Amino acid sequence: MTTTRGTAPRRALRRLPLRLAATLTVTICLFPVYWMVTTAFRPSRDIQSYEPRLIPDEWTFDHFRTAVQADGFALFWRNSVLVTLGAVLLALVVALGAAYAVARLRWRGRRPFMLAVFIAQMAPWESLVIPIYIISRDTGMLDRLPTLTLVYFMITLPFTVVVLRGFLAGIPPELEEAAQVDGCTRVGAFRRIAFPLLAPGLMATSLFGFITAWNEFTYANFLIIKQQDNRTLPVWLSSFQTTFGTDWGATMAASTLFALPALIVFLALQRHVTSGLTAGGVKG
């Protein structure tokens, strides 16, 4: 009994540096977000004050009203939602078929195919700017939301294939073979047996694709989209900066509104994300 009582404090003492490191990391990561949100509620005179305070003395919703009433607010939200959901759904459908072919079927070129997927995943997005622009220009696809959807689909597809392939490799193929013995087709066995077990992997890849497409700015602003009505929310944030300066209160309020959908999606899927990434990353 004495040994047990003496072990608990020593164990807690050994874990203390880890807890302090975790607390410091969380503080460093969350403080800019906290400052963004509180700035959105500060009056303009407090934002420009030379003596900033951690907790605002006064709270106001004027900046949020300015952001919501800005030109193109509803239109840019619609564009971002359509482009993001389209890219995520398209990546899931294509990656699911590719991952199944790699994990379950035996065909020549399977290893080179996965190598090509890994190379595409490692390639920086900036290196694709010129090729994508030339292709879009030559095919007459500039200034179109479907083009932006295809670009985001291309960016998120390699990661989705890698994760789903690893997750499929962790599901015993004997389960599907047993279903086929009972009369299911290959497609039916996959739909009834393997697909429900893929939920964590699908959630993890959906979250990655959603955040990537939702936050992307370079292609939407400088490359693909020039027409005002086809722009997305990251481009909308830059509208609060004019030749006369930047409306920091409205910018922070717009940034807070912009971050809410990604936060909601993460909170909804967080229970599946860790298991999905772990299974997709180490199995197979």
Describe this entry's structure for a reader.
Helices cover 76% and strands 1% of the residues. The chain is an all-alpha fold and 284 residues long. A two-stranded antiparallel sheet has the order 1-2. A hairpin with a 2-residue loop joins strand 1 and strand 2. Helix 1 runs antiparallel to helix 13 and helix 8 packs across helix 9. The longest helix has 40 residues, at 2-41. The radius of gyration is 24 Å and the shape is globular. It starts with a helix and ends with a helix. Residues 280-284 have low confidence and may be disordered.
Strand order of the largest sheet: 1-2
Helices, by number, come to 13
Shape: globular
Q: For the record, give the distance between the C-alpha atoms at the N and C termini, rounded to a whole number.
A: 45 Å
Order of helices and strands: HHHHHHHHHHHHEEH
**Overall pLDDT confidence:** 83
Helical/strand content category: mainly alpha
What amount of the residues lies in strands?
under 5%
Amount of helix: over 70%
Radius of gyration: 24 Å
Low-confidence stretches: 280-284
Counting DSSP E segments of at least 2 residues, the number of strands comes to 2
The major pleated sheet works out as: 2 strands, antiparallel
